[in-house]
Design brief:
16 helices, 356 residues, 48% helix, seven-stranded parallel β-sheet, 10% strand, TIM Barrel
């Protein structure tokens, strides 16, 4: 039997009592931090930074040291998986990722190569090992991957998209081809996350960034189904004997909350369009909830940040199973001082609410 965790983040993931609500932030290591920009300049470009375990470890630790957040999240990118499968990956200046050659047919899928995470993604696993060593058990580490559906969107579109013309065209016109791609990705994602767990990740998050572009039935068939396949294959106990929680974050999918609860995950992440108090009632204690402050609140004055934090914590109430986070990631033009205000507000306000 896994032993009971001591870190408040891991305890909250298991809906165990905590003295204050844990907080970490999506994209907490990123371009809004001057120290991150200094390291990125040293690396030369984003992808090189991701592939340098020492530098990736350094930027992973920066927000932990600066803000005292309750969890570190591995610094990497979801698109290292398509690259490991044989696609070319570049990041154009201000243009986002470019993947080529694109996948548009069954024949295109045959070009994809098998993935051994210890081989093609060994640099990520080395980073996980270095981070765990540097954290020295003081702060837990979250590993992550993109969801099969989200990865497929980039692989079929060739990069970012506003219309999702090609992936949705494949969904409606060639569903068997898309299922074949998603099944392939489900296996790779599961193997990748299991390798992160083996190297020391103490929790893992599946980022379903583009789940919200799907209708309800399509979400169930093409996104949630493949995430369930991943979750079913994950090693839920780490090498240290501790349970490894699985966090499922599908942006724009609050209407599908009950279905996500049934996926087998331990935590459901919510964006800011879902009422946190109502979500707690809907899940009926079956999973923990993560979120869900609108990131734009961080553009406001410190007193408004605290007010928003208080409202969100009061909406959840003095119940176990809440991890405070943003409803999406930090933006590059945000002020790090607002994060200082945010973390302090969560720590102080949650202590008051959890005592009631």
């Amino acid at each position: 039997m896994p032993t009971e965790p001591t870190h408040r983040f891991l305890r909250a993931c298991q809906r165990l009592p905590v003295e204050q609500t844990p907080i970490w932030l999506m994209r907490q290591a990123g371009r809004y931090l001057p120290e991150y920009m200094k390291v990125r300049q040293q690396a030369g470009d984003f992808l090189t930074l991701c592939k340098n375990p020492e530098l990736a470890t350094e930027v992973t630790l920066q927000p932990v040291c600066r803000f005292g957040v309750d969890a570190a999240i591995l610094f990497s990118d979801i698109l290292v998986i398509p690259e490991a499968m044989g696609m070319g990956l570049t990041f154009g200046s201000g243009e986002g990722p470019i993947l080529e050659p694109v996948l548009r047919s069954a024949a295109d899928l045959d070009r994809l190569t098998p993935v051994d995470p210890e081989d093609q993604l060994g640099y990520v696993l080395q980073t996980v090992t270095l981070i765990r060593r540097a954290l020295n058990e003081k702060t837990p580490l979250i590993g992550f991957s993109g969801s099969p559906w989200t990865l497929a969107t980039y692989m079929v579109e060739g990069g970012s998209s506003k219309t999702f013309r090609y992936i949705k065209g494949m969904l409606f016109d060639q569903p068997a081809v898309l299922h074949r791609l998603l099944d392939r990705l489900s296996g790779v994602v599961a193997d990748y996350l299991n390798a992160q767990i083996a190297h020391g990740a103490q929790a893992v998050q599946i980022f379903d960034t583009w789940g919200g572009v799907l209708g309800p039935q399509e979400f169930m068939e093409f996104s949630l189904r493949s995430m369930q396949q991943v979750i079913q294959r994950l090693h839920r106990v780490g090498p240290d004997g501790q349970k490894v929680p699985v966090i499922l974050f599908s942006k724009g999918c609050g209407a599908q909350l009950e279905a996500m609860v049934e996926s087998g995950c331990d935590v459901v992440g919510l964006d800011w369009t879902t009422d946190l108090g109502l979500a707690r009632q809907r899940v009926q204690g079956r999973v923990a909830l993560q979120g869900n402050l609108d990131p734009a609140v961080l553009y406001a004055a410190p007193e408004r940040v605290r007010q928003a934090v208080r409202q969100l914590l009061q909406a959840y109430g003095p119940h176990p199973g809440h991890i405070f986070n943003l409803g999406h990631g930090m933006a590059q033009d945000m002020d790090p001082e607002r994060v200082v205000d945010l973390v302090a507000a969560v720590q102080e306000e949650s202590r008051i609410i959890l005592r009631t």
